[in-house]
TrEMBL record, chain A:
It comes from Lachancea thermotolerans (strain ATCC 56472 / CBS 6340 / NRRL Y-8284) (Yeast). The keyword Membrane applies. InterPro entries: QCR7, QCR7_sf. Component of the ubiquinol-cytochrome c oxidoreductase, a multisubunit transmembrane complex that is part of the mitochondrial electron transport chain which drives oxidative phosphorylation. Its main location: mitochondrion. It is found in: Mitochondrion inner membrane. The keyword Mitochondrion applies. This is Cytochrome b-c1 complex subunit 7. GO terms for biological process: mitochondrial electron transport, ubiquinol to cytochrome c.
TrEMBL record, chain B:
Keywords: Electron transport, Membrane, Mitochondrion, Mitochondrion inner membrane, Respiratory chain, Transit peptide, Transport. GO terms for molecular function: metal ion binding. It comes from Lachancea thermotolerans (strain ATCC 56472 / CBS 6340 / NRRL Y-8284). Residues 20-162 form the Peptidase M16 N-terminal domain. SUPFAM superfamilies: LuxS/MPP-like metallohydrolase. It is found in: Mitochondrion inner membrane. This is Cytochrome b-c1 complex subunit 2, mitochondrial. The keyword Transport applies. The keyword Membrane applies. Transmembrane segments: none annotated. InterPro entries: Metalloenz_LuxS/M16, MPP/UQCRC_Complex, Pept_M16_N, Peptidase_M16_C. Belongs to the peptidase M16 family. UQCRC2/QCR2 subfamily. Residues 167-311 form the Peptidase M16 C-terminal domain. GO terms for cellular component: mitochondrial inner membrane.
Automatic annotation (TrEMBL), chain C:
Residues 31-175 form the Peptidase M16 N-terminal domain. It comes from Lachancea thermotolerans (strain ATCC 56472 / CBS 6340 / NRRL Y-8284) (Yeast). SUPFAM superfamilies: LuxS/MPP-like metallohydrolase. GO terms for cellular component: mitochondrion. This is KLTH0E01760p. Residues 182-363 form the Peptidase M16 C-terminal domain.
């Protein structure tokens, strides 16, 4: 089953609601983020979600202008860093509290719309 | 924005008071119209009323626009929202047995439209631009708008369609919606609808959750002015038009005059492209248009029309025809127009405002008429 | 799966019985048909003759249209004084002359007088000046139509090519050339041949009582007696195309149609439902873009057209089933026609339950919407009475529509659309409109 942002967010919420699960999973997730290293390149998590699909394109189109420019800046900066095989100076690393989910709400809305359209396109009439 | 919860609590306690009218009939199809005093004259920015009207039937808290369209087409119904200087009118036309669905759908639109930021650029603005382009392609419409802004300046003179001269933001639209969608400011009318059914369904719908508010309808006579405007335009034919502000007491005279000038009773009827009286709660505007591809001919004709009208005429012969026109109009209108035409006699043109559109070099000035 | 759109929850029984059309045939052969709406303050009566442009020939084409103009110019003065409003409609199968008036007892006599005097005027007594005036005005209007009403023009040419050399092929309005060649004698001959008792229906709608109208008609209306005029030729459909390419126009207008159903066909409503499956679309309307039509999804994804409209037009002998479209995307007309015709194929093989249910509801809405306006109603009442003997009661019509199933639609489409010939018409920038065979090939599939 292809994973959707909606299902991932749902799973995340479930984990966070359960104290036992979050005790195990949250530290693992934090380690994962650390090893992934995107913050050292000045990126936020939402910057590295695949954008080559209709859902993400719709979400990006609806992103407020300043958010869009900030995202473009972060990406160019990260590319430059990669190109020169450097990490950013530590002062410019994205701090955990700065790593906000700025795109996710738009992705969720776009996914919900697509899902509703899919359902309505395949409506079955029940005889009363 | 007012929190929806406080709105709900307040509304439930108040006496259930709406302006509802209904006319039952044998027809298989019913219409339900909600008329809101929210037209261009009430909007703090020009074009705001137009955008709010275009926002109707978009996503609401309960239902997406897509779901509304898909459900409604399965039931056999359609929606439209129109805007003019006085009203925003939401109208649903549907098969008679589906009344409850459509009452609830309209209530939903009025009370719970969610005004999502992306809807403005993706759907509302393109539709508004299209409306504007259609209107601008019509020289008669352009002349009418010029006359309104000349005669009334502000208020009824406000531009109706959004042309981005005054920038309107989403917050403006939301604030305006909160202001105008109140119970005292809307009238609900059904045709082919049982009145007690309608009242019951309205009470069960989100209409009941609207705040009481106050009616914005204006009663004081607005200030009027006399002037002339000219607009060079290569869009279609040339138009010369005159307009006279009409006090409420004179509606009948001008209604008959409009019929007279466009019927065979008057020798002027072949020259007059259009003559009409627009009625509003506290004033009206009578306007007359002469249109043609050759501006020189238009110029000659408007001179002839104005000269004849200035001499004074007995127009009482057109009373019957005018009454019939009203009766035919009322057959299909959700909000019938009642007007007693009995006392109409003579008409003489006094001061008037003037607008010329098109090849204005060949069209006369007001003082040449 | 999803439950159907809340229909069962909100259903409510009908309380008011619908009024039904009533028809009486008088001893002299005239039929009187009424559909009363007592709530209206106005009423409309009129006379509808069962001869329209299809009863004309290439040499007097447009004569019905001129007669309609004559009715307006001759009667207007008198009508306006009496508070009566005239309206006419010229169609392929009928021409109707109606007069609206303020309802009241005895009010029906004046408009009937007016109608009677028009009929006599058409037959002989109209003045030369009035005839010349009507001819000039008609010619001017037709010229304006041909110059600026592109969608209307395409539809006329669609008829002209589909029914070429048969009566339905003649343009309703006539052409400028044919109208300029007409004389007073042509009008009189046409009127004498067609304005018969047996070819006429007196209609009443709005607030008019049937019995009162029947009585008034008996005393006031006298038409020539005689048999129904014989139609010389039956109309028949021929797959063909006509192109009026004009690159100076801003857009392209095209229409494609297969042979449809005649009015009397048992499949009349099935064809109408099939047309509503695709319905109409206008790009500028946000709500129109959200409709549940697969064709609209395809059209939108590639912006294939600005608007389209599917129709099932029916006449006495034949009909047309197809669509008209307007597009500013002139380089993808091939895609527009391809996707549309491929969707038509689906009617025969994979149209769904939900699509048919939607189409049925929308058709009912469309048919029911006419009823409020007494003028429109008078025209359609006359046309239906002439074609079917009596206008069908809407309740029965709705029952018929309700009974249409997916199977019926598929059966009809396999018979009438699948691999059938088409008529094509277009104007504007239609360089991209494919040739006849390419389009014809899209009417079926090798496999699906």
């Amino acid at each position: 089953m292809p994973q959707t942002i909606t299902s991932i967010v749902k799973m995340g919420d479930f984990i966070l609601r359960s104290p036992a699960l979050s005790k195990v999973v949250v530290p693992v997730a934090q380690q994962f983020v650390k090893f992934a290293g995107y913050r050292q390149l000045g990126l936020k998590f939402d910057d590295i979600i695949a954008e080559e699909n209709d859902i993400a394109q719709t979400a990006l189109r609806r992103l407020p202008e300043d958010e869009g420019y900030a995202r473009a800046f972060r990406m160019i900066r990260a590319h430059q860093s990669e190109l020169t095989h450097h990490l950013l100076p530590k002062s410019q690393w994205v701090k955990p509290e700065e790593d906000t989910l700025y795109l996710t709400p738009y992705l969720l809305e776009a996914e919900a719309e697509a899902k509703e359209r899919e359902e309505l396109d395949n409506l079955q009439l029940t005889t009363k | 924005m007012i929190g929806s919860r406080t709105r709900m609590a307040g509304a439930r306690q108040l006496a259930r008071h709406y302006h509802i009218s209904a006319k039952d009939s044998a027809s298989k199809v019913s219409t339900l119209a909600v008329r809101v005093h929210a037209g261009a004259r009430y909007a703090p920015k020009e074009g705001l009323a137009h955008l709010l009207s275009r926002f109707n039937f978009h996503n609401t808290g309960n239902k997406s626009a897509l779901r509304l369209v898909r459900e409604s087409e399965l039931l056999g119904g359609r929606f439209e929202s129109t805007v003019d200087r006085e009203y925003i009118t939401l109208k649903a036309t549907f098969l008679k047995e589906d009344l409850p669905y459509y009452v609830s759908a309209l209530g939903d639109v009025v009370y719970k439209t969610s005004y999502r930021p992306h809807e403005l650029p993706e759907s509302v603005l393109p539709a508004a631009h299209h409306d504007l382009a259609v209107a601008q392609a019509c020289p008669v419409k352009s002349a009418e708008n010029l006359l309104y802004s000349t005669v009334f300046r502000s208020d009824l003179g406000n531009a109706v369609l959004y042309d981005a001269v005054q920038k309107v933001s989403l917050d403006d639209i939301k604030a305006y919606a909160d202001k105008v969608y109140t119970r005292d400011n809307i009238e609900i009318a059904g045709q082919g609808v049982n009145e007690s059914d309608l009242k019951r369904f309205v009470n069960d719908s989100l209409f009941a959750s609207l705040p009481q508010g106050t009616s914005l309808a204006k009663e004081a006579t607005p200030k009027t002015f006399v002037g002339e405007t000219r607009l060079r335009s290569a869009e279609g034919d040339s138009v010369a038009a005159i307009a006279v502000p009409v006090a409420k007491a004179d509606f009948a005279t001008y209604q008959v005059l409009a019929t007279y000038l466009t019927s065979a009773l008057s020798d002027l009827s072949p020259l007059v492209t259009k003559a009409k009286l627009d009625q509003y709660s506290n004033a009206g505007l009578f306007s007359l248009y002469v249109k043609g591809s050759d501006a020189a001919v238009v110029s000659e004709n408007i001179k002839k029309v104005v000269a004849t009208l200035k001499t004074g005429k007995d127009i009482s012969a057109a009373k019957g025809a005018a009454a019939l026109q009203l009766a035919l109009h009322n057959e299909t209108a959700a909000f019938p127009v009642q007007l007693s035409l009995d006392n109409v006699k003579d008409f003489k043109l006094g001061k008037f405002s003037y607008a010329a559109v098109g090849d204005v070099a060949k069209l006369p000035f007001a003082d040449e008429l | 799966m999803l439950r159907s759109a809340t229909r069962s929850v909100f259903k409510r029984g009908l309380v008011t019985p619908a009024s039904k059309p009533v028809v009486t045939e008088l001893s002299n052969g005239i039929k009187v048909a009424t559909l009363t709406n007592e709530q209206s303050a106005a009423a409309t009566v009129g006379v509808v003759f069962g001869s329209g442009s299809a009863s004309e020939n290439p040499y007097n084409n447009g004569v019905s249209n001129v007669l309609a103009h004559l009715f307006h110019s001759e009667g207007a003065q008198q009508a306006a004084k009496a508070g009566i409003q005239l309206s006419t409609k010229t169609a392929r199968d009928y021409q109707s002359y109606v007069a609206s008036f303020a309802a009241g007892s005895g009010a029906v006599s004046k408009p009937l007088d007016l109608l009677q005097s028009h009929i006599s005027a058409a037959l002989e007594s109209s003045s030369d000046a009035a005839t010349a005036g009507a001819l000039a005005k008609t010619a001017k209007e037709v010229a304006a139509f041909e110059a600026s009403n592109h969608p209307g023009r395409v539809l006329e040419h669609l008829h002209a090519t589909a029914f070429q050399n048969t009566p339905l092929g003649l343009p309703v309005r006539g052409t400028v050339e044919s109208i300029e060649a007409l004389e007073k004698a042509d009008l009189q001959t046409h009127a004498r041949y067609h304005f018969h008792n047996s070819n006429a229906v007196i209609v009443g709608s709005g607030n008019v009582a049937h019995d009162e109208l029947v009585k008034a008609v008996e005393s006031q209306i006298s038409l020539q007696s005689g048999d129904k005029p014989v139609e010389k030729k039956k109309s028949s459909f021929l797959g063909s195309e006509v192109r009026l390419r004009d690159d100076t126009l801003p857009k392209a207008w095209i229409a494609i149609a297969a042979e449809g159903e005649p009015v009397t066909s048992p499949n009349y409503y099935v064809a109408k439902v099939a047309a509503q499956v695709f319905g109409s679309y206008a790009e500028a309307e946000p709500a129109s873009r959200l409709q549940g039509v697969k064709l609209i999804d395809e059209v939108q994804e590639y912006h294939l057209c600005d608007s389209f409209d599917h129709y099932s037009l029916s006449y006495k002998d034949a009909g047309l089933w197809g669509f008209s479209a307007e597009t500013s995307n002139i380089h993808q007309i091939d895609d527009l026609t391809h996707f549309t015709l491929k969707q038509w194929n689906r009617l025969s093989i994979s149209v769904t339950e939900q699509e048919v249910a939607r189409a049925k509801s929308l058709l009912k809405l469309q048919l029911g919407s006419v009823a409020a306006d007494s003028v429109k109603l008078a025209h359609s009442l006359g046309a239906e009475t002439l074609a079917l003997g009596a206008a069908p009661d809407l309740t029965r019509v709705f029952e018929k529509i309700d009974n249409i199933t997916v199977k019926d639609v598929k059966a009809w489409a396999s018979d009438r659309l699948w691999d059938q010939d088409i008529a094509i018409a277009g104007t504007g920038k239609i360089e991209g409109l494919l040739d006849y065979m390419r389009l014809r090939n899209d009417m079926s599939m090798m496999r699906w």
